Amino acid sequence: xxxxxxxxxxKGYSDxxxxxxxxxxxxxxxxxxxxxREEEETPQKIREMKALYYNLxxxxxxxxxxxxxxxxxxxxxxxxxxxxxxxxxxFPTYHAMNTEQLRGYFSFRTRLRKGKPDENPPISYxxxxxxxxxxxxxAEPEEGxxxxxxxxxxxxxxxxxxxxxxYNWIRDYxxxxxxxxxxxxxxxxxxxxxxxxxxxxxxxNPDVGTEEEKLFQAIVSLSSYEIxxxxxxxxxxxxxxxxxxxxxxxxxxxxxxxxxxxYSEKCFGRGDVGSYRxxxxxxxxxxxxxxxxxxxxxxxxxxxxxxxxxxREDYAGIAKKSGILADLCRETDRLLREKTNFGHPLKKxxxxxxxxxxxxxxxxxxxxEKNEKKKAVLTIDLSVxxxxxxxxAQTRDFLLVEEDECRSDQEYIAxxxxxxxxxxxxxxxxxxxxxxxxxxxxxxxxQISIKNxxxxxxxxxxxxxxxxxxxxxxxxxLLNKVPWEAALRGQHLSVEMLVDEINDRMMDxxxxxVIEFDGSIPTLVEDxxxxxxxxLS
Length: 537
Fold this sequence. Notes:
Elements: E1 2-7, E2 16-21, H1 22-41, H2 44-55, H3 63-73, H4 99-113, H5 123-134, H6 141-155, H7 160-176, H8 181-184, H9 190-204, H10 212-222, H11 231-235, H12 237-257, H13 263-268, E3 272-275, E4 292-298, E5 301-306, E6 309-314, H14 323-339, H15 354-374, E7 375-378, H16 385-399, H17 403-409, E8 428-431, H18 469-480, H19 485-490, H20 495-509, E9 515-518, E10 521-524, H21 529-536
Antiparallel strand pairs: 1-2, 3-6, 4-5, 5-6, 7-8, 9-10
Helix pairs in contact: 2-3, 5-6, 6-7, 9-10, 10-12, 12-14, 12-15, 14-15, 18-21
C-alpha cells in the first residue's frame, strides 16, 4: 500500500523510510494532466496574454502598467464561454484570474459590448471593465464616458462602493481626456464657479469692467440673502441692481486700497492648490503623460498636469452661499429703503460694519446722480400758441351759457361774454417723479396752470388678511411656545412648506424671513416678533 523512500542524514540520526500514499501521487498526476488539457483548450490569445505578463520587466513596470499592456493586447478579443464559477478581488486584474475566470470575463465583456448585459455578473468583472474604460481601452473618449455611465445605471445598485467610485472616475475621465465643458457641467458645480469667476475678474482687472447684469447675477447666485424676494427689488429692480453692483465694486476697491485680501477672498477664502491623484482607487496607468496640460472646469476649479504630476486648484468656500456677501446685500437693501422712505424698514445687523459705511456712501452718490439726471428743461414751442388760444376760445364758448340760465342755476357767472382767456406760458423745470408716483397722463406733470390735481393712493391690504388660518396658527403657536406638530399632522401639512409660504409673504411686507430652522425645529427671528404680533392683532 505504501512506497518507501529513504532520507539520509549526515550524522546524529539513522536513515528512516518516509511513506507516501499512492492516492496522493495519482491526484498530483491527474492535476498535471488536467492542467495540460486546460492549456490545450485555452484560446491562443489568452495564452499569449499570460505570457506577456511574464515577458515584461516587472522591475520597471508597475501593476497598473502591466494591466494596461495586457488590456491593449486584448482590446478586441471576444469569447463565448459559459462560466458558472466565482471571482472576487479587491483590485481585480487579468493576472489574478485563472483561465476559466478569464474566459468568463471576456465573454461577459463581449455580451456587454453587444448590448446584452448580464443581470448579475461577478462584481469584480464590472470593476475590470471600468478599469479598461478609464485607461482608454475599447472606446473613444465620448463613447467611454457613455459606457461608464451605462455601468453606473446597470450595476450601481449591486455595490454602493462601485456607484461612488464610478461617479468620481467619470469626473476624472472628463478632465483627463479633455471632454467638452458641457459634459463637465453635469458632474461639477460650474454655476457657482462661473459666478465666482466674474467676481475675480472684477477685482483682478477693475479697469476692464464687467457687464452690470452679469455681475449682479453672480452676486445673487453666491449670496445667501435672497435679493429677488426683496420687496424693494420687486418694485425697483433696476435701482437695486445698479446699487448692489456699485456697492460691491466700491467694497472691493476699499479692500484693495487698504492692502487687505480681495473681497471675494473674504467671502469665499483663497484658492487652494494641492497634489491630485487621477482615478483614485482604480487600476489606472497614466499613459498620456502630459507635459503641460490645463483643464478648467470653471474659474474656481482647475486641473493641471506638468510632466506627469497632477495638481488641483479650487475654492472650497463656494460649497455654500456666502453670509458675508449676504450682509453686504441686505445692508444695501436696508439703506435703500431708509433713504427712499420705502415700505417696511429692515433692522440693521451688528456685523455689517465696513459694508454699511460703503453702502451708505454709494447710495448717497447714486441718488444724487439720479436726481441731477432727472432735472430736464421743458421747452415750449411758441408757434403753437395760436392753437392754444383757439382751443381756449372754443372751451370758453362751450362753457358760457345764457346769462339768465347761469344766474338762475348759480353755476357760472360771466361778467363779459367777450372776455378772453389768457394763458401764461413759462419755462419750467420738470423733475421726473419716481416710477410709483408718475401719473398715467404726461401733461399732468408739466405744471401748466393745472390746479386741483388729485392723486389716488394705493390702498394697503388689511393686515388681518395677510395670513391664512394655518399660517396664523403656526405663528401664534411659536409665539406662545405651545405644541403645533399634532395639528399640522392632522391636516397633512408640511411645516417646511408652511414656513416657506410665510417667509415668502413676509419678504413683500417686511423684506426679510421671519422664521428660521434650528435643525428641524422652526423658530421665530427675534427681531421681527413685534412686527408679527402687530400683523396678527
